[in-house]
Amino acid sequence: MAPSKSREGKKEQPKTNRRKASATSKMTAPANPLSDGHAPTELAEQLAKPKNRNQMYDMVKGHAASTVPEFLKYLPENVRLPIPLRDNRRFKIGPDEEFFPGQYIRMEGAEYIIVQAPTKKNYPLIWRAVQQDRVKMVVCLCHDDQMSNSDDSKCFTYFPTEPEQTMEVEHKKGKYTLVCKSREGLSMGATKYEVEITDSEAVVEKNSDDPNAVNEKTRKVLVFHMNTWTGQKPETGNVLEQAQNVALFFREVKKHELNILRKSMENYVSPVLIQSFDAINRSAIGWVALMLLRDVEKRECFDVPNLMKLIMKSRMGSISTYYQFCFCMAVCLHIGKDVKWCENDCNNALTELTAKFGDRKLNELGNVAV
């Protein structure tokens, strides 16, 4: 049989041409020491140059989930659960890159800072971070029983909680004065505070006589405190019952986050700081919920498992138990139900998830495994 005309004179193309440039080109080696398709000779030439070796190490290291030297370097400074992470994700305070128990989580133009619970000794670092990145929203996820001003095994109460209450926070170059301007109880078992922060060292650049002047010396920060969520599995009753309140809480947080974004006249969008005790479960669930709310608003997707995988990859230890997985799934299903997107499907999945939780026979979508 004669060959097909469509194939005559043609060679089947390889599935990838990643080696094509290096195997056939007579040009000099590319500047990027990690270019795809290096032949052994080219790789040897790159390694012969000390500058390229350093570049290659830095570029390869950037793909690691964490690096041991940085982890060991800051291990003694961890007062909570030590979390290995990439050095380029670590939140660095000031020009000296002082250690701070937090990290950036960036995705699709949204940026969050995940932070562990502070102690009485290191709580000023939170406010230094807030000032450094001009943070406008702080989310605290520690239960009231996990807060204390004297017990370092608990989260220090790092913000004023009563109207007109004042806190003085010392930092290297001066002090911050925090004043609680308002306190509002929310229906889902949470509290919203408006905190005014004044930096003694900030300079007012504009003439104070100008009625339109922006006073950068004093600004306001919203603090949302979900003070009724322990993050632990209840010993009795419906173990996923509080997921509804948590979903409502993060819907409220997202609403204010979007309001700040819409009112902002700057190109820079400040990150939201999310703080829980070890910052691996409640903070991770909060991040998943806030990212899902972005998708839900646009009716784009409801890919909860993928969001879970992303936070697990970005922050080791996140959503670390079967209970945390199911609780996170329940929060997301409540969000879908409350915003009227596939309401019946979400409601049915919630019913099944609650009924079958104890069987531990669920797949990653929260459905009964078959």
TrEMBL record:
PROSITE patterns from the UniProt entry: TYR_PHOSPHATASE_PTP
SUPFAM superfamilies given in the database record: (Phosphotyrosine protein) phosphatases II
Listed InterPro entries: Oocyte-zygote_transition_reg, Prot-tyrosine_phosphatase-like, PTP_cat, Tyr_Pase_cat
MF-aspect GO terms: protein tyrosine phosphatase activity
Protein name, entry field: Tyrosine-protein phosphatase domain-containing protein
Compositional bias of kind Basic and acidic residues: 1-15
Highest taxon of source: Eukaryota
Domain Tyrosine-protein phosphatase: start-end pairs: 83-335
Pfam families given in the database record: Y_phosphatase (PF00102)
Chain spans, region Disordered: 1-39
